[in-house]
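Let's do one together. I've listed all components of the complex below, 790 residues spread over two lines.
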Amino acid sequence: MNLPEKARKLDEADVLRAKRADFVLDDTVYLDGNSLGALPAAVPGRMADVVAREWGRLRIRSWTESGWWTSPERIGDRIAPLVGAAPGQIVVGDSTSVNVFKALVGAARMAHAERDEIVVDATTFPTDGYIAESAARMTGRRVVAVDPSELRTAFGPRTAAALVNHVDYRSGRLHDLPGLTAAAHAAGALVVWDLCHSAGALPVGLDAHGVDLAVGCTYKYLNGGPGSPAFLYVREDLQPRFDSPLPGWNSHRDPFGMSPRYEAADGAPRGRVGTPDILSMLALEAALEVWDEVPIEAVRDKSLALTDFFLECVTAYLPAGRVESITPVPHAERGSQVALRCADAGEVMDALIARGVVGDYRRPDVLRFGFTPLYVSFADAERAARVLAEVISTR
Amino acid sequence: MNLPEKARKLDEADVLRAKRADFVLDDTVYLDGNSLGALPAAVPGRMADVVAREWGRLRIRSWTESGWWTSPERIGDRIAPLVGAAPGQIVVGDSTSVNVFKALVGAARMAHAERDEIVVDATTFPTDGYIAESAARMTGRRVVAVDPSELRTAFGPRTAAALVNHVDYRSGRLHDLPGLTAAAHAAGALVVWDLCHSAGALPVGLDAHGVDLAVGCTYKYLNGGPGSPAFLYVREDLQPRFDSPLPGWNSHRDPFGMSPRYEAADGAPRGRVGTPDILSMLALEAALEVWDEVPIEAVRDKSLALTDFFLECVTAYLPAGRVESITPVPHAERGSQVALRCADAGEVMDALIARGVVGDYRRPDVLRFGFTPLYVSFADAERAARVLAEVISTR
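Okay, and this is what the predicted structure of the assembly comes out as:
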C-alpha cells in the first residue's frame, strides 16, 4: 500500500474525522496549530453576538446578565477535564507570562525561606526563564537552570519550587510529569508545570499526579484565538496558602465592597487580578465547544498516529540525511509536534508556506510541524512530507 | 427658558453632536460610560474581519501581515495624543492592575533604597491600593496611605514613589496632576498617575507636566470594550531605567532570538509582557477611530457643560435635601461624572435603570452618573435628572 493510500485508510478509520467540520479550513495544510490554532466555526457567530448584543445593547448589564463576571472560573472549569482537573481549580485570564509569575511567586511563598532555589528547565520557552528570574529576585531566591534530563537529581533541600515545561516548544519532547512531580515532592519542593504545548494535545492528569500549580495557554491546541487568555491551576488543598503577587480587586473576597483592605477570595478566583478581557475570553469559550464529547485519550491516540505517520512519510520521501528529527521516537517522550533540523530551515519553511504547507521555523535550523488531531488529517501529513521532499530536492 | 428647551439649544450648539452617530445607541440614557463605554459603530465590522479573515484565513501569518505583533505600540501611539504624550511612550496590553504593578515596581526601582515609602492616595480604587501593597512588599518598601488633600505634604525624603488617581472613581474629584507631580519631584520622588477616569474625558498633559509613569484603562471613556487592555506610559527619558517586574518575551530586544538571557527592549515595548490579546486589542483600535479629528479640549468643554447642566436640572427638579452631590463644583476639581449621595441609593438606581436611565451604584449610598461627551447629549442629562426626580418623589 502506498502512502497516499495508507493516509486515506487512516482517515477513513479516524474516530475524530467529523471534528474537522467544526473548524474553518481551506486547502492549506495547517501544521502551525501549536502556535495559533485554527478558527473554530462557532466563534464568528458568537463574537458577533457578544459585540452587538452583549456589549452593544446590554452594555454594563452584561457583567451579570451575560455572565461576564464569572467567566474566568466558568471557562476554567470547561478546560479542567481536558487537563485532568476537578472543577474549582482553574481560572482563565492574563497572559501565560503573567500566570507563570503568579504561580512561581505563589509556589515560592509556600516554601520555607531556607529553600532558596527555583529550579528551571534550561531548555524552557524563554519567557518562563525570564519570569522565573524575576520571581526569584522578588522572593529572595536564585534560579538554577538545569537540563531536563538532570532535573530529577537537581531537586534537593534547597529547592523551593521548580518550573518545568510539559512539552519542549522546540523539540516536541514530552517530559515525565508524574515522575518529576513525585521527585520534586520527595525533595519537599513544589512544581509549576507549563502546559502550553500539552493542554488539548494529550492527557495531563493534573489531579491524578498531584501536580501543585500549572499554567497553560489557550491559543495553541485549545484554539482560543490570537493571544487568548491563559489559565492558572492551583491544586485545591494549596489554594488557602496561595498568596498572589498580583492581588487585584477581581480576586477580593468581596470585589464590590471596594474595601481598602485586601482579603483574598477562596478557591480558583484567588488567581484573578484585574477586569478580565471579555471579548477574548468569550471567543475562547466558544472555541472550547469543539471539545464536547471528545475524550482527550482519543486525541492523544490520533496525535501519535499522525506524528508516526508523518515521520514514516518523511523517511520514505526525503533523501537520507537531509533532515534530522529532534523529536523523540518513543511515544512516552513525544508531544504533538515534529521538529526537523534542516539546512537553510528558514528558506525551506518559506518555500513550504508558498506551497500551502504551513509550519514554522525556529532559529537557527528547526522546522516545526504541529499536529492538531481535531482538524489535521493523515492526508495532510502525507502531503506535508511530500511537499517538503519536493522543496528539499529542488534546492 | 425651561430646561428641556435649554437642553435643545445646548444640543444644537454642540460641536461634538455629530459624533453620536459613531456609536450604537438606543433610547436609553446611558450614563455608565465611566464603567463601560458604549459600542462604537466601527467595531462590529472590524471584529468580524479580524476573526474571519485575519485569524480564520491568514492565521499565523497575521502576526506580521496584519500587524498583530506591533499592535501594542501602534495603539499606544493612537492613545498618546489624547493624554498629551509624544509617540513612543505608551504601550497597550494587560489589565490596569497588572500595569499598576509594572509601573509602581518600576518606579520604586528607580529610587534610592533609603527611600522606603510608597505613598498612595487613601481614597484610591481598591485594586491600586492592593497592588501597591504587593509592589511595596516585593521591593522592600511600605505603603503610606494619605488623604488626597494631604498628598502634597506627604512627599518627603523617604518617598520612593507615589500612586495617585487623576480622578476619584467614587466622587469624581479631579486631582491636581501638575501641582502634585511638581511637589513629588521637589521631594525627589516619582509619581505614577492612574488615568482610568480621565483618559478620553479631559486633557491630561502627561509630557507637558513631566509625569513619570502612568497607567489607564481603555474601556471607560475610550470605549474599547469590556476588559479591553490597559495602557502604560513611561516617560521617554526614564525608559532606559525602567526595570519591569514582568520581563516576558514580548519585551525582549530580540523576541524571536529565543535567547535564555533576558535583554530588555528599548522604548515603550519594554512594558510588554506576554502575547497580546489580539481580539480585544483590535476592537480597541477600531474604537479609537471615533477620536479622529476630535480635540480633547472640545471634549472637556462639553463634559463640564454637561455636568453643570445635569446639576442644574437636579437642583431644579428634586426636592431640596433628597440628594447631595459629592462631586466638586469648581471645574478645576471635577472629572466627567457626577456622584450623588442618596438614601436607598441601590434601589433608586434599580428604578432608574428600569426607566431607561443607566448609571451605577457604589456602596453604601452613591449614585454615579458618567458623562461621555462623544455620545451623551444635554437632552440625556435633562431626562436623567427628570426621571431621578420622579423616582425619588414616588418613594
